[in-house]
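Example 3.2
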Amino acid sequence: MCFHLLCGMWTGYGTGAPNYSLSETLLVTKNGADTLTNFERELYVK
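Structure, written as tokens:
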């Protein structure tokens, strides 16, 4: 079974306030779970 998890915080469109979101796709089997996204998990700050 696959799950697509999405969370974020939108602090106000059009106000110039920062927004962020995170997204991850997981595959869950009887042996455990694994991510399907092949992307480095690092925090980038502007």
